[in-house]
Every structure is written in structure tokens, then in C-alpha cells.
Fold:
Amino acid sequence: MILIVAEHADDRLKPISRELAVLGRELADDLGRTLTVAILARDPASLVEECRALGPDRIVTVAGDRLEPYDPDVWTAAVEALVSEDEPAFVLAGHTSTGYDFLPRVAARTGRPLVPACIEWQRHGERVVFTRPVFNAKMHMRVTPKGEGPCFVTAAPGAFPPREPDEAGSGPPQDGGEPRLDAFDVDLSGLPVRSKRIGRESAAAGALDLGSADIIVAGGRGIREKEHFGLIDDLAEALGGAVGASRPVVDSGWRPRDYQIGSSGQTVSPRLYVAVGISGAVQHLVGMQSSRCIVAINKDADAPIFKVAHYGIVDDLFSVVPEITRTVRALKGQSPPVGSAGSGRESD
Ligand SMILES: Cc1cc2nc3c(=O)[nH]c(=O)nc-3n(C[C@H](O)[C@H](O)[C@H](O)COP(=O)(O)OP(=O)(O)OC[C@H]3O[C@@H](n4cnc5c(N)ncnc54)[C@H](O)[C@@H]3O)c2cc1C
Structure:
């Protein structure tokens, strides 16, 4: 059995849970195992419907007041109990601040291997080989867990994008009809309280949620000045997307830290990623290369970004980007923005 530990917030599954279902289903089908999704929550019933759509063979719920808000000791104890009861071959969680917090603890407590930040897997005969980035994503390491399960794996966000509903082979992938629903009881009341949530701050209204954005337009150092970044904003607005940035843009103070995409920023996998004036350094690529369609605009035909781009425009961004924005607006019947960014061309 392959066990997924779903992540959720505000009674909704987080996008990483859908990505885990993709990896989990691939492993389950290839290894001839079943797929179970575990929901750990105060009231798991509110998430069952959403979990059904992930196509598991079984959903197991663990209910308890202490499971929310997230407490690493409580989640570790609950997952450890679940694992010792169900004996899964693989236990999957997101390589997120939550998943990479509790899953290594469970692995350590059970004395079993952990593969962190998995981006790919393959079968080599009887062995399952996982790929994970190392040395700041400059190299990839292939890892084979030893011995009988369970093996714990965190999946890098964006590495296993869910398929579009209209793609062949998509839809609930299980063939056994409705998943079985089980409740698992575990006594969490005696656990010591070692951490306390003192508050929760939401991002300011209108702030971006790059992780779940469908379209991202990202600007790099090629923009040259903060004032020119409006070109990126305009194109993103015309496309109905979010704005992202490379690290120099953030380091220069043109955009706040939460715009940064890459190894020390956010990992994203939108349907469309437009990279404007971004060279494609490996630290940037690791954060966006699993995007479904990458369009690069760069005046240097040898820029590494073109190696991962599906479409490339080799030209001056200051002439290309406003032209694309105008065309998109015209096609969508939108009026031009008031007070757009300066053109930034040398002649200005
Ligand atoms: C530990 C570490 C962590 C890092 N983490 C990250 C990270 O999370 N995210 C990240 O992005 N980087 C990160 N970096 C930095 C990374 O190595 C690169 O330096 C950075 O990604 C480069 O950003 P850039 O592509 O915007 O700038 P540059 O590499 O300077 O590229 C600018 C590009 O713009 C093009 N250009 C210039 N003018 C125009 C024009 N008029 N029209 C069209 N194209 C033009 C140029 O041809 C060039 O390709 C990290 C580095 C380290 C050491």
C-alpha cells in the first residue's frame, strides 16, 4: 500500500495534496499496490469529498482536536501509529514546511529511510529509484531505499503536476469505484504540549499566491530598473496571472521577497510561465522548470532559459513585452492600463 498524508487548510486540500496523489498513483499502479489517502484533521469529514476526487482506493480519517492547528508532535504520533498499523510500502508527504517537519521525525522514530524533495522516480528491476536535487540543485542524486518498507518520501512542490481534466488518462484513476472509507482511532490526548500557535498572519489583501497561480509572468535583471517592472505587471494583468521575480530583482528591492522564484524562493508549476529578462540560472530553473508551458523572452539567444523553454522570443523585452500586452488586451477586449510603465528603451 502507498500512503499519502494530505495537507489542508481552511477545510480545503492544499495543491500539494493533488501532486502527491499523482506520485502515489504512479507508484501504486507500477508496483501493483493500493493507494490510501490519510486525512488528519479536527473534522476530517469536511475533506472526504475532495479526497475522493484524488482517486484513491481508500481514505483513512484520523480525527482529533489536537490535529489542528498543526503541531509536529501530534502529527508525528498520528502518522507513526497509522504506519505501524497499515505497514505501507511508501509514505508520501509534501516537501513543504509541514511535510518536511513531521515526516523525517516519523522516519527517525521508525528507523526507516527518508528521501527528501523527490522530483522524479523510476523502476530499475525490483528497485525504485528516486531523484532528488542536491548542492542547491546543481546536481541530481539518485537514491534507492534499502530493505523492506516503509520508506518515507517528501515530494518537491511542482514536480508531479496534476493532469488537466481533458487530458487522456486523467480523471479518477482507480478502477475499483468508490474508495473505501475507514476511521482510525489514535489517542493523542496524553502528548505533551511543546509548541503553541500564537497567531496567524495572512498575506495582505491582493498579495500573490504564486504556489496556486495558473499563469505567472516573472521579471529578471534584464528589466534594469524598478520603474520598468510595470511592464511585467501590465502583461500579468492582461493575462490574468500573478507576478514573480528572479533573485536579483528581490535583492535590488524592486519586489518583496515573496515574489522570488527559485531554490531560495518559491517553487511553482503554473500552466503558463513567462520569463522576461531572466537568464535561467540553475537556482531559478529549479523553482519553475516543471511549469507546463514556459515562454522565455531574452535578447541573448544562448541564455540557458531557452533550454527549458517551450517557446522562445530572442529580442529586446522593451519592445516585445508591450506589444504582447497590447495584443492580449485587444484579443480580450480590455482597455489599456492607465499610467503603464516606461518603455525602458535606450532611446527613451
Ligand atoms: C545560494 C543561491 C541561491 C539562489 N537562489 C536563487 C533563487 O531562488 N532565485 C533566483 O532567481 N536566483 C537565485 N540565485 C541567483 C542565481 O544564481 C542567478 O544569479 C539569478 O537567477 C540571475 O537572475 P536573472 O536571470 O534575473 O539575472 P541575469 O543572470 O543577470 O540575467 C538577466 C538576463 O536578462 C537578459 N536581458 C538583459 N537585457 C535584456 C533586454 N533588453 N531584453 C531581453 N533580455 C534582456 C540578459 O540577456 C540576461 O540573460 C541564487 C544564487 C545562489 C548562490
